[in-house]
C-alpha cells in the first residue's frame, strides 16, 4: 500500500480514476513479477497484487497468495482443491530434505489436475506418475508458512 497520502493526492488517485477507480485486487500467473514491478503496482493501484502458480494441465492455480499478504517473491500456499509436494531432483542437487528450505520439482494431484493429453498416452505418462502426481518440471522451495517460491525450471 502507498505509505504517502501526498503521492496519492498528487499522482496515484488520478491514475486510479482513469482506470475506473475500482481496482481492489489484481492477480498475476505468468512469469514472476519483479519486486520493483510488484511494489509499483501496489502503490499505483492501492490494492492487493497476488501471484499464483498454475499451468494449463492444472486447469487453475495450484498455489495463490493470500489477500493481504504483502510479502514478495513467492506464489502463495496450495489451493485446497489439490495436494502439492516437492520431489527430489538429484541431478540438479535439489532435495525435499534440504534445510531450512526443502527444494525439489513441484508436483500436484487432485480433481483440478487434467486426466491426460488427448490421444497421447506416452506424453501423459511422462508427466503423470502411477500415483497420479503431475510432475510440472518446475523447481520450488517451501518457505515458512507453507508458501511456495519458484526457483528454477
Can you characterise this structure?
By secondary structure, the chain is an alpha+beta fold. It has a single domain (5-152), classed as ANL, N-terminal domain (Rossmann fold, 3-Layer(aba) Sandwich), CATH 3.40.50.12780. The chain has three helices and eight strands. The chain has helices at 5-18, 35-45, 121-127; strands at residues 25-28, 48-54, 61-64, 77-78, 83-87, 103-109, 134-143, 147-152. The strands form two sheets. A four-stranded mixed beta sheet has the order 1-2-3-4. Strands 5-6-7-8 form a four-stranded antiparallel beta sheet, with no helix packed on it. It starts with a helix and ends with a strand. InterPro entries: AMP-dep_synth/lig_dom, ANL_N_sf. It comes from Aegilops tauschii subsp. strangulata (Goatgrass). It holds the Pfam family AMP-binding. One of its GO terms (molecular function) is long-chain fatty acid-CoA ligase activity.
Amino acid at each position: 500500500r502507498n505509505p504517502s497520502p501526498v503521492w496519492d493526492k498528487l499522482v496515484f488517485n488520478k491514475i486510479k480514476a482513469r482506470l475506473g477507480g475500482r481496482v481492489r485486487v489484481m492477480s498475476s500467473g505468468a512469469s514472476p513479477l519483479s519486486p520493483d514491478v510488484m511494489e509499483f503496482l501496489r502503490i499505483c493501484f492501492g490494492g492487493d497484487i497476488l501471484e499464483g502458480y498454475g499451468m494449463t494441465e492444472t486447469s487453475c492455480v495450484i498455489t495463490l497468495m493470500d489477500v493481504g499478504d504483502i510479502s514478495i517473491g513467492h506464489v502463495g500456499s496450495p489451493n485446497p482443491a489439490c495436494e502439492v509436494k516437492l520431489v527430489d531432483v538429484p541431478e540438479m542437487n535439489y532435495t525435499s530434505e534440504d534445510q531450512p528450505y526443502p527444494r525439489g520439482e513441484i508436483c500436484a494431484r487432485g480433481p483440478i489436475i487434467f486426466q491426460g493429453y488427448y490421444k497421447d498416452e506416452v506424453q501423459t505418462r511422462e508427466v503423470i506418475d502411477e500415483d497420479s502426481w503431475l510432475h510440472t518440471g518446475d523447481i520450488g522451495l517451501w518457505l515458512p508458512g507453507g508458501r511456495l517460491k519458484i526457483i528454477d525450471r
